[in-house]
Design goal:
It is built from 8 helices and 13 strands. It binds uridine-diphosphate-N-acetylgalactosamine.
């Protein structure tokens, strides 16, 4: 009886010792410096900088490194995924959304979006905002700036924590061309006056559109352009670039890479500021000489992207058109222009 009691106490003591040893190995002071992964880079961190909380977080963070094995010999073969200047072209199936999100979550990024709803275009705003809640940078800090001449008609849309909306009044106009083109000036000013130091990325989007699928961290880059859904099978001589050499938006027949959308573009605040400022000043200099480019700011944007190559190109998944049937290479539609009756909604025909 006495002997079995002694054995029992020994077992208890050994178990407690083993438990303490395990805790010490995981959470005790390290014997040497360690490599930890932070913000996508490897850093040597000295042992005394480590705290308990950080260690637990680190063990947790390693989970983001568990994902399916990537391959360089298997993947999408029906589309081109790199431009000739080696910018990625983003298509469904070319990225791991969870991995990308976990990388950007560690950087605590915030994303601004601009949308213009002037005159009757206010009718598109509700759908735009509601679908953005569902698909646009879900789980990240998002700040949507709505430019409108009808602030009272901005719909109340419930936004998730970390997401917010600011309404900025703008004057009405009798010409849709002017509304569309003035966006560059207002985006330039917004970045200068409100966004410097208050965010990382910005996207500028058409309001007569809706989100239908994930638009997230895979789209982030320095200068980001979206390929227009209407022309990507065409030779560049067919692109609706501005073809008059007098215009600052001019692109010659044998020039140009892709035809990009005016309805969606973005990137870092610095890059988008430069783009908006350049397109605005070229547009205004043209106007002084009595020229308006074929597709207003879209023409100037295309000229800009020809000279200053985008660092990331988004496939037409990122701006499809609802009136078009989906092509075979489009596995998902993320954002699309809704069908609209131009004569009914524009202030001029
Ligand atoms: C294309 C572009 C658009 C712009 C335009 C040329 C796409 C999908 N769309 O579309 O971005 O480059 O050609 O100028 O690439 N707006 C108002 N009120 C108005 C008129 C326009 O708020 O009365 C705003 C609104 O945000 C709209 C945007 O300007 O989404 C562009 O106007 P649009 O949609 O009428 O231009 P559209 O369809 O010709």
């Amino acid at each position: 009886m006495q002997a079995s009691k002694g054995r029992f106490v020994t077992v208890i003591l050994l178990t407690a010792l083993l438990l303490l040893g395990t805790l010490y190995v995981y959470f005790g002071p390290p014997l040497r410096n360690e490599v930890v992964i932070s913000n996508h880079e490897f850093h040597l961190v000295s042992s005394d900088q480590q705290r308990w909380g950080e260690r637990i977080k680190k063990l947790w963070d390693y989970n983001h490194l568990r994902y399916p094995q990537p391959s360089i010999v298997k993947g999408r073969t029906d589309v081109v995924t790199l431009t000739p200047w080696l910018a990625p072209v983003v298509w469904e199936g070319t990225f791991n959304p969870d991995l990308l999100d976990s990388i950007y979550q560690q950087q605590d990024i915030s994303v601004a979006a601009t949308v213009f709803a002037v005159g009757k275009y206010i009718m598109f705003l509700k759908n735009f905002l509601e679908t953005a809640e569902e698909y646009f940078f879900v789980g990240f800090k998002v700040h949507i700036y709505v430019f409108t001449d009808r602030p009272d008609e901005v719909p109340q849309v419930k936004m998730a924590p970390g997401r917010q909306l600011t309404v900025l009044p703008v004057p009405s106009s009798n010409r849709w061309q002017e509304i569309s083109a003035r966006r560059m000036e207002l985006i330039q000013k917004l970045i200068e006056e409100k966004l410097q130091g208050h965010g990382n990325y910005i996207f500028c989007l058409d309001v007569d559109s809706k989100f239908q699928g994930r638009w997230g961290t895979e789209s982030l880059g320095g200068l980001v352009a979206v390929i227009h859904p209407g022309y990507y099978w065409d030779p560049r001589s067919n692109f609706p670039y501005e073809r008059r050499p007098q215009s600052r938006a001019y692109v010659a027949e044998e020039e140009g890479d892709f035809y990009y959308c005016g309805g969606a573009f973005g990137g870092s605040l610095g890059e988008v500021h430069l783009l908006a400022k350049t397109c605005r000043s070229n547009f205004e200099a043209d106007a002084k000489e009595g020229i308006e480019a074929a597709w207003q700011e879209e023409s100037h944007l295309n000229r800009y992207m020809w000279i200053n190559k985008p660092s990331k190109v988004l496939s037409p998944e990122y701006l499809w058109q609802d009136f078009k049937s989906r092509n075979a290479e489009i596995h998902i539609i993320r954002f699309s222009g809704v069908v609209k009756n131009y004569a009914e909604i524009r202030p001029n025909a």
